[in-house]
Design brief:
By secondary structure, the chain is of the alpha+beta class. The chain has 4 helices and 5 strands, in the order H-H-H-E-E-E-E-E-H. Helix 1 crosses helix 4. The radius of gyration is 17 Å and the shape is elongated. The protein starts with a helix and ends with a helix.
Length: 158
């Protein structure tokens, strides 16, 4: 039996191999369809920036990086997109991504898309997550070919 880590490595190798026959048009369908990538990522002028903007990623990263990011999202957490939990002195609990931070205020982007600014002095406790907010591709049952197709489309983005 394969362990979860072994399965991810096997899928990585198979997805990289599948790039030879990747279909970017099908990858676009996955991005805006069952993959629901657009719910957190901006690409081709659509989506939101709860996760990193994928436009022009091909100038910053290679194919294997993109495939790894899809299969093993905890491996690379892009700075500025780490999930953070704030316990406030008034009892509120906020969870999201820190967008701006000064000595006086913290702006947090919530999963709902709402941006909240709080006074730094009102934060009782802050916990930065050690894992990605992006779910593993396994919950979407993406095949190796699907991952390759999705990667091929992402790599076309200007």
């Amino acid at each position: 039996y394969l362990t979860k880590a072994g399965l991810k490595k096997a899928n990585l190798a198979c997805s990289v191999k599948a790039m030879d026959k990747a279909d970017p048009a099908h990858g676009r369908e996955i991005f805006f369809g069952r993959g629901t990538c657009f719910a957190c990522h901006k690409a081709a002028g659509q989506g939101i920036t709860l996760g990193p903007d994928l436009n022009g990623i091909r100038t910053r990263r290679d194919v294997e990086y993109v495939i790894r990011s899809i299969l093993i999202p905890d491996e690379y957490i892009v700075e500025g997109f780490q999930q953070t939990s704030l316990a406030m002195k008034d009892g509120r609990k906020l969870f999201g991504m820190i967008q701006e931070e000064t000595a006086e205020t913290v702006k947090i982007y919530l999963p709902t898309g709402e941006q909240v600014v709080v006074r730094a002095a009102d934060i009782l406790k802050r916990d930065d997550a050690k894992n990605s907010g992006m779910p593993s591709s396994f919950i979407y049952t993406l095949s190796d070919k699907d991952v390759a197709d999705l990667t091929a489309w992402i790599m076309t983005l200007q």
